[in-house]
């Protein structure tokens, strides 16, 4: 686990953004994820795709941060989709049923296509 979390934001031009996360999302870094991603929502991009391809670890605090982001996105009329989700987080999200609220996608492209209403054969 690390105490640093890096994030880059790419706006998609349709009230959406892809937030690429690098590092571990845990007790120490979850507040950073929550605050920075909420700022993206508040800046007018309530439809978020979190690219988690470079995330090595997510604990329950990180899961809580994701739920908080989902609530913020929905309150702003948006949505939250997760892409390239690490195995451990996939298990946590599917076991708890949260995947019914924030869809999991294999790739960012798949998540963006699903949001746009194009079926790529992935999850909803």
TrEMBL record:
SUPFAM superfamilies: SpoIIaa-like
Organism domain of life: Bacteria
UniProt-listed InterPro entries: Anti-sigma_ant, STAS_dom, STAS_dom_sf
A Pfam cross-reference name: STAS
GO molecular function annotation: anti-sigma factor antagonist activity
STAS domain boundaries: 18-115
Family recorded in the similarity comment: Belongs to the anti-sigma-factor antagonist family.
PANTHER family associated with the record: ANTI-SIGMA FACTOR ANTAGONIST TM_1081-RELATED, ANTI-SIGMA FACTOR ANTAGONIST TM_1081-RELATED-RELATED
Annotated protein name in UniProt: Anti-sigma factor antagonist
Provenance organism: Streptomyces capoamus
Gene name of the record: rsbV
